[in-house]
Specification:
By secondary structure, the chain is α/β, with parallel strands linked by helices. The protein has two domains: 152 residues, Periplasmic binding protein-like II (D-Maltodextrin-Binding Protein, domain 2, 3-Layer(aba) Sandwich); 143 residues, Periplasmic binding protein-like II (D-Maltodextrin-Binding Protein, domain 2, 3-Layer(aba) Sandwich), CATH 3.40.190. The strands form two sheets. Strands 5, 6, 7, 8, 9, 10 and 11 form a seven-stranded mixed β-sheet that branches. The longest helix is centred in the N-terminal third of the chain and has 18 residues. The chain is elongated and about 65 Å long. The chain starts with a helix and ends in a 5-residue tail after the last helix.
């Protein structure tokens, strides 16, 4: 009798355990870029699709974002995942401008993309600006830098600082610092209202391609010594802009800065969701690269390395289970 009761109780316990739902992934809120045609928005949309395809019943909500705002929104729990340049993450973590204080916690990494995003300094051929030093004294020069505090603007301000140039110098000489969106800046270049404009991102920028169709362009180089100083401050790299960009308009030996992106999450995201997001990025990388070719760099053997914020435990579990990480 006792044996029978034990058997029944054990069977009931096993049935109850089997009826319990297995741990599942959460729906996620994703911050990427403000412009739906931008590479971040497209790339993170593909990441979201890979995640929902592998986890039926989940959703990924795309929220507007940007280089300077994505990390703070994750740290404040206003979003669950996003993308950011590693140099901007370094600034956020250590309290470099545009941030006012260090934020050493609140964010975790799931994948370092090891892509290459290039800083591009562009000027119409008709512009009198031939060298960045011209911005110190040349009259009535207008520059387009994108939103204040964004990655593009922040880097350019630091470059100018090493040249001994400030925005006030440009304004005192009758010039303007234009902080409109890049679509607006493109139209202003076409109308002859911008002398120098800048951008950081992978490959060829959509708006520069658009402008180059009607406006002859030249690409300005950063002096190598200054490039090294800025790279050391911001935590990025020095290189040359690919000469073949924009149908060969770049030409050889244009010294610039370059960076990489990482996909990040809030550090209190549950482990299972972080595991499955990492899985979606790695196992869905071919489809992600079809949407955003710049992210064909995703390499599971390297995606866990070189991160600014530590890996999420769910990401660690994935990389170790699959043998990518010791």
């Amino acid at each position: 009798m006792h044996h029978f009761l034990k058997t029944v109780l054990l069977s009931c316990a096993l049935l109850a355990l089997g009826a319990m739902p297995s741990q599942s992934a959460e729906s996620l809120r994703c911050v990427s870029a403000a412009n739906p045609s931008g590479t971040w928005y497209i790339g993170m949309g593909a990441v979201g699709k890979a995640y929902t395809n592998m986890n039926p019943g989940t959703d990924v909500t795309m929220l507007p974002g940007g280089g300077a705002t994505n990390a703070p929104r994750l740290a404040s729990r206003a979003a669950d995942m996003g993308v950011a340049e590693n140099s901007m993450l370094n600034a956020f973590k250590t309290g470099l401008e545009p941030y006012k204080a260090p934020t050493p916690t609140g964010i975790a990494t799931v994948a370092n993309l090891w892509d290459r995003i290039n800083y591009q300094i562009v000027s119409p051929v008709s512009s009198p600006v031939k060298d960045l030093r011209d911005l110190k004294t040349m009259k009535n020069v207008n520059i387009g830098v994108g939103s204040t505090g964004g990655s593009t603007e922040k880097i350019f301000r630091n470059i100018l600082k090493e040249y001994g140039i400030t925005y006030d110098d440009i304004k005192k000489n009758g010039g303007k610092v234009v902080t409109n969106g890049f679509d607006d800046i493109a139209n202003m270049v076409k109308d002859g209202q911008i002398d120098v404009f800048v951008w950081i991102g992978p490959g060829e920028a959509w708006f520069i391609v658009d402008v180059s169709g009607s406006v002859p362009l030249k690409f300005l180089s950063i002096e190598p010594g200054i490039a090294k100083k800025v790279a050391a401050i911001l935590g990025c790299n020095v290189g040359t802009l690919p000469a073949e960009f924009y149908k060969g308009k770049v030409g050889p030996d244009v010294t610039t800065l370059w960076d990489t992106n990482a996909i990040i999450v809030r550090d209190n995201l549950d482990e299972e969701s972080a595991y499955r997001l990492t899985q979606a990025i790695i196992e869905g990388r071919d489809d992600i690269a079809l949407a955003n070719p710049a992210w064909n760099s995703i390499d599971p053997a390297k995606a866990w390395q070189g991160v600014v914020y530590p890996l999420h435990p769910g990401a660690v579990r994935y990389y170790k289970e699959k043998g990518y990480m010791n």
